[in-house]
Amino acid sequence: MKKHRLLLESAVALLMAMSISAPASTTYAATEAALTSSTAVPTDQDATSYTAEEQATINKLQAEYEELVGSNNSISNIYSTIPSMAAPFSTGALTPETIQKIVSWVNYYRELSGLPAINSNTDSNDLAQIASAVMAFAQSDPQTNQHGLKGTAQPQDISDLYWNRAILGTSQSDLYFGFPSTLGSIVKELIIDNTNIDGFDTGHRAWLLSPYLSKIGVGLAKADTGRTYASLLVANTPDQYNTPSQDVVTYPGSGVFPVEELQDNKALPWSVAFAKDSDLVTDNTTITVTNLTNGTTGTVLPSYSGSQAYSKTVISFLPPTTLTINDHSEYKVTINGLNSNTMPSYSYTFKTFSENSSLNNSN
After folding, report:
1. Dihedral in degrees, nearest 10, Cα atoms 252, 66, 6, 224
2. Does the pTM of the predicted model rise above 0.90?
3. pLDDT over 90 at 196, yes or no
């Protein structure tokens, strides 16, 4: 079930004391196949230009990215108290700098999708740390769903108090299991969300990029095997009553978007989440993506539609294989065949750039 870097999605059904449940989802078999594809005649543009406002945004994002990758991004020396992976068990504690770095990475990705920044708090961080440390101590199987610790037996040296707190924490968190090179790589793998055991449902992304989200908790612990267990607590029960900061959240986000966040060594799904509209996808729903700069285009089916992170409909899809994706183009995404009289289709545009300021050739 698990693929490569081993992530698990956070599910509403596992939350304690929740008053809502996720509607049934629909999975489409033709995930990667383009229904129709073509290579249109290139436009008379030979490059994508940026407005002064867009260029200012690019400069700001590049500076933020440089700061994120350049300081306090190491996965070593992250503890103020090191967790104990032998009896007697102890959860340990992360340094405030480590927690803030993870939060800053989450906020960078939220900014790319036009969402407001969030913070962490002590209670959420403590619960997330318990969840991570218990999984690391028990060496929870990354091939098995660990939300609510369903796939882990309680070790003799873990008290009922810690065990029950870890059940709650893992139920309310995006979970990561892997061997990260940096703190940022943990967040990125949850955001690009292409190693999920359930396929391309982009559930981790939906929670971290939720327009309802108010705060997160951060927990990290390394097992004796060297594997890092991370919990990012994202399911705050009161958040369901918040007014969403946006009605639609897209990845890639509208405006300008770094091409590096669309690149990986395996297929990387794009997504559109509707906070207020439910059951939008039908058997006739298709997504067309066009590179407006060189004319390459294609149409694909949704790879997933369902509900995540209090949003009513999340649609994820793989971009057409006929589409050229580079760091200096403008794109249009159009979803047709939606189950809505007021919104039978939805479209938006964005322009790509490079996060690396020395490589970006915007004009």
Report:
1. -170
2. no
3. no
